[in-house]
Amino acid sequence: MTEHPSPDAPRIHPLAIVEAGVEIGPRTAVWDGVHIRTPTSIGHDCIIGEKTYIAYGVRVGNFVKINAQVYVCTGVTIEDRVMVAAGVIFTNDRYPRAFADGADGLATSDPTEETLPCTVRTGATIGAGALIGPGIDIGAYAMVGMGAVVARDVPPHGLVYGNPAKLRGHVCVCGNPVGSDASCARCGRRYALSDGPAGRLLILRD
Questions:
Q1: Distance (Å, rounded) from C-alpha 189 to C-alpha 165?
Q2: Is 146 helix (H, G, I), strand (E, B) or coil?
Q3: 3-class DSSP assignment, residue 112
């Protein structure tokens, strides 16, 4: 009798490298050329695109789309319903060197006190080819434009792009830009503007 895999089992391409101890949730797809280091955890119903590298200790939530050739370094947390487009690069060291000062040989690749964490909050989108600096917090439902160089935190619903990336406006939960009346023409959601440490915040009205 032939055994069929459970429809809820994660789908891992035979050319992917998934190290022992990596946790992958139900119905998640891992495509060819992917390398996932342990101990990393990936939630359910995610897509990890081909030739993506995910370093050790990364945490990925549920319903996350990570496209092809993305580099996710140690210290990154990606919450639920995030999209990371092709070619995005995360970084975690503000003053990197290949060598250890005052000692022979290479510097350690393990996390140190200078390894800065990055968090991508629920529902955010990072456009293709964006570069995310160390220690960055990307707010919920924010949108980072393609090719952006993000060197400071992005507020919730913030629309940022450019080099360096600057706050250019706000986007709705649905992804549509929010108009000058703080409402979304696509879905009808209405917002209020408030000041926050990372810039103007968009707050969903009841």
A1: 26
A2: coil
A3: coil
Regions of the chain where pLDDT drops below 70:
1-4, 198-199, 206
Distance of CA 118 to the CA centre of its chain: 9
CA distances from 31 to 6, 23, 35, 78 (A): 18, 16, 10, 19
For the record, the structure tokens of 82 come out as: 């995030």
Can you point out the beta strands (E) in 62-115? 65-66, 71-72, 76-78, 83-84, 89-90
Angle, vertex CA 89, rays to CA 98 and CA 124, nearest 5: 145
Position 2 scores a pLDDT of 44
pLDDT given at position 206: 60
Question: Rounded to an integer, what distance in angstroms lies between the CA atom of residue 193 and that of residue 43?
Answer: 33
The enclosing H or E element of 118 equals strand 118-120
Look at residue 66 in the predicted model and tell me its pLDDT: 98
Predicted local confidence at residue 142, as pLDDT: 97
Contacts by 114-117, CB closer than 8 A, 24 or more apart = 115/74, 115/75, 116/75, 116/92, 117/75, 117/76, 117/77, 117/92
Residue closest to 157 by CA, chosen among 190, 179, 124, 127 = 124
